[in-house]
Amino acid sequence: MDLKEYFSLVFNDYTLRTITLGTAILGAVTGMLGSFAVLRKQSLLGDAISHAALPGIAIAFLITGTKDTNILLLGALVSGLIGTFWIRGIVKKTHLKSDTALGLILSLFFGFGMLLLTFIQKQPNANQAGLDKYLFGQAATLVESDVWLMAIVTGLCVLVLLLFWKEFKILLFDADYTKTLGFNTKTIDILITSFIVLAIVLGLQTVGVVLMSAMLLAPAAAARQWTNSLAKMVFLAAIFGAFSGVFGTAISASQNNLSTGPVIVLVAAVFVVFSFIFSPSRGLLFKQIRFIKNRRDLELNKTLAFMHQIAETHEDISHPHTIKILNNFQGYTKGTLKKLVDKGFVQLQGNMWSLTKLGYTTAANLYNQQTDSNE
Amino acid sequence: MNSAQIEIQLIASLVAVACAIPGTFLVLRKMAMISDAISHSILPGIVVGFFITHDLNSPLLIVLAALTGIITVVLVEYIQKTGLVKEDTAIGLVFPALFSIGVIMIAKNANDVHLDVDAVLLGELAFAPFDRLIIAGTDVGPKALWIIGMILIITLTLLIAFFKELKVSTFDKGLATSLGFSPAIIHYGLMSVSSVTTVGAFDAVGAILVVALMIAPAAAAYLLTKNLKKMLVLSVVFGIFSAVFGYWVAHWLDASIAGSITTVLGLLFLAVYLFAPNKGIIAVLYREKQQQAEVSLITFLLHLKNHSEVEERHVNHLREHINWQKVRAKKVLDLAQKNNMIHIENDVVSLTEKGETFTSKAIDYIITNEDAQIEDMKDDFFLFRG
Predict the structure, then answer these.
(1) pLDDT tens string B64-75
(2) Which CA distances in Å does A275 have to A164, A212, A218, A288?
(3) A34, closest residue in chain B (CA to CA)
(4) Least packed by Cβ within 10 Å: which of A160, A262, A308, B97?
(5) Hey, is the C-beta of A119 within 8 angstroms of any chain B C-beta?
(6) pLDDT, average across residues B186-195
(7) What is the pLDDT of residues B233-269, one digit of tens each?
(8) Which residues contact B243 (CB under 8 A, 6 or more apart)?
(9) Do A96 and B219 touch (CB under 8 A)?
(10) Residue B57: is it exposed, middle or buried by C-beta count within 10 angstroms (0-12/13-18/19+)?
(11) Coil, helix or strand at residue B339
């Protein structure tokens, strides 16, 4: 199946449509909430939470004995929340730093989850097969009810974001100020963190424990490069996330043996790399171009200033000088001279140059910022 | 105990020691999450090495995987330097991408590769004794034991040789630079050791357990001591204890050894987290409560000193004036009375002589903020012991 075939199938084939919709919605919701995680410098929280969710899945299965997705996800949610609040407890009450707390909870919960999973595997219960799909996720197991659940959670999340937009925004940028204004920062904080946990738990089935954190971060990190406005960033991150989901599903469906989760993550990574390089204001490419342009301008100005120094010693400012005397000067090249001529600052007569009136005044005011020679 | 069991415990203990040493420094340098990133991103290195050698135990695999680990660190630092995103975001972006590449490489070549992502992530310690190292026809023990033993010896040599440098650069980068040690060399040295340890340990115990063994013993030790040497020793002890104990739990439950060692580590950390003498949660909460009571007491005494009028000092009035609840007001009143700071006559509270001097001293301290003022008060009061 190639890509073209895939896109014609998306609208007809039930499985493919479900998976595509599911990954798109998932990408959108994780992108939105990921923006907050990235801006709050809690990027790795997602990684810790997704790992911490594993024992919850195992315990939920041990208690109920069923593989009903909703019950397992409920277990994951509970254990993810416990992990999150333990992390906060460690950071707040001890001198251990947040990175240690994250790494601790991540590895300890995950190890405990693995213990339970291997324990379950040894149980004489035929129902247990397939629990380990939560490790790496299997988008193919998505059914319509899962997509509905995702859609409902996404809707709820959008609603809460709209309702508490002002609170979230102010807490994000100035937590102390928020407190002095009388907002209950703890509640807002718990609200946003809980939604992040919820989004992560939803994604476990699709991309799995290990790669979930990238779903949260990558769209947000990409979106951050294009805008300085929170609203635009959240919106862009949702779009990037949704597109990563769709493209990832398309690519993995068009090839054999390609699990969806890693492909989605790689597509999201491509978005990030593209944004890092090509974003107009922050991107590396344009930064480099601006850097080169500034250096050229500086060289041009240096040459002009040097000419001005020479011209100053003569009564007649447009007294011609040989080009040779410029040769020992650093900023001088044929190119800069030609540019100066083009700008009308300098006149050339054979081997001689002279400053024009315009060039002289520009050079004299070069450091006063009164000219617009930088344009 | 048969010989395989002893060998498993020996391998697990050696891995625990080899992880605890770099782990201690990672925790102190606030780079704990780097170990998580390395443990995931070595996957493509292992896969490429496996494609070349078709042998999971080849030394080339370790070299390539360690190289990928270092590439991860360099990439994270490069992204961070561009200033486009923060460090934690950089970590969170790099390792899932590298891990995905590894998973996809395995998936695309699944037919001719006996390499399982689960095995990389989780390892299987139980099989380690069956992979023997045979030199000149004689069996000299499990391969994993030799690999991790070598890594441990290298780590220990480096630790002893560069202990001073490591210590200085961990606690004071500026001082280290001015003394002529390059923090960059030590940084990359530590990163290389961490990478090599992760790689050497992963196929015995899996990537996640490596992270747990690096961070958890060090974090628990950090809650118990502030001395670097003691911290190293403690984390090694914690590591070995959970390795051995974890093995027997796994034996009893018939479950994954790596998972059960991690669980034991988790319980150990939980116990330390709750009960550590000074830094544990219970100690911290108790201290906070104590301090709260003392602050209330001082507020109360200051109030008494400021008001000589009888109605201001009436027990019932105090309750509404300082806005305390009944229980709390009574507690503070009792505390003050027990310390002979006040006496109560007809429900009117007044300061005793001791209370007078104490309060004046407290005021002096609050105004001047000089420690000398409170030297002799420190015995009575927790709060001032800083």
Answers:
(1) 888 898 899 999
(2) 29, 21, 10, 14
(3) B89
(4) A160
(5) yes
(6) 89
(7) 999 999 999 999 999 998 888 888 888 899 999 999 9
(8) B9, B12, B13, B15, B16, B213, B261
(9) yes
(10) middle
(11) coil
Which domains does chain A show, CATH number per domain? 3-280 (1.10.3470.10), 285-368 (1.10.3380.30)
Which residues of chain A neighbour B99 with C-beta distances below 8 Å? 210-211, 262
**What's the gap in Å between the CA of A223 and the closest CA on chain B?**
11
CB < 8 Å from B in window 193-232 of A: 210-211, 213-214, 216-218, 221, 224-225
Does residue B162 or residue B322 have the better pLDDT? Answer: B162
CATH superfamily of B3-279: ABC transporter involved in vitamin B12 uptake, BtuC (1.10.3470.10)
Look at B82 and A112 and tell me if their CB atoms are within 8 Å: no
User: Can you give the pLDDT at residue B115?
Assistant: 61
Least confident of A87-91, A194-198, B13-17, B180-184: B180-184
Indicate yes or no: CB of B121 within 8 angstroms of CB of A47.
no
Residue A195 or B183, more confident: A195
Tell me the mean pLDDT in the region B25-42. 88
Q: Is there a contact between B358 and B318 (Cβ–Cβ < 8 Å)?
A: no
Task: Name the architecture of domain B282-385.
Answer: Orthogonal Bundle (1.10)
How far does Cα B2 stand from its chain's mean position?
35
Kindly tell me if the per-residue pLDDT of B385 is higher than 50. no
Which residue in B32, B255, B266 is closest to A100 by CB distance? B32
State how far residue B126 is from chain A, nearest Cα, in angstroms: 13
Question: Quick one: how far is CA B98 from the chain centroid?
Answer: 26
pLDDT at B264: 94
Please give the pLDDT value at position B322: 63
Within chain B, residue ranges assigned H as helices are 3-28, 32-53, 59-82, 87-108, 117-122, 143-161, 163-171, 173-178, 183-205, 207-224, 228-253, 257-275, 281-306, 315-321, 326-338, 353-368
B373 touches chain A (CB under 8 A): no
Residue of chain B nearest A119, judged by CA positions: B255
In this complex, do B93 and A210 lie within 8 Å of one another by their Cβ atoms? no
Q: Where are the domains of chain B?
A: 3-279, 282-385
Distance CA B105, CA B42 (A): 13
Are residues A73 and A201 in contact, defined by beta-carbon separation less than 8 angstroms? yes
8 A C-beta contact, residue B280 and residue B272: yes
**Any A CB within 8 A of B32 CB:** yes
Using the beta-carbon criterion (under 8 Å), do A259 and B103 form an inter-chain contact? yes
Q: For residue B17, what are its two tokens?
A: 């020691």
ipTM above 0.95, yes or no: no
Q: At A46, is the pLDDT very low, low, confident or very high (cuts 50, 70, 90)? A: confident
Pick from A219-233, A258-272, B362-376: least confident:
B362-376
Q: Identical fold at B3-279 and B282-385?
A: no
Among B91, B15, B124, B193, residue whose Cα is nearest residue A103: B91
* 3 state SS of A125: coil
Q: Looking at per-residue confidence, does B61 or A166 come out higher?
A: A166
Q: Is the pLDDT of residue B111 over 60?
A: no
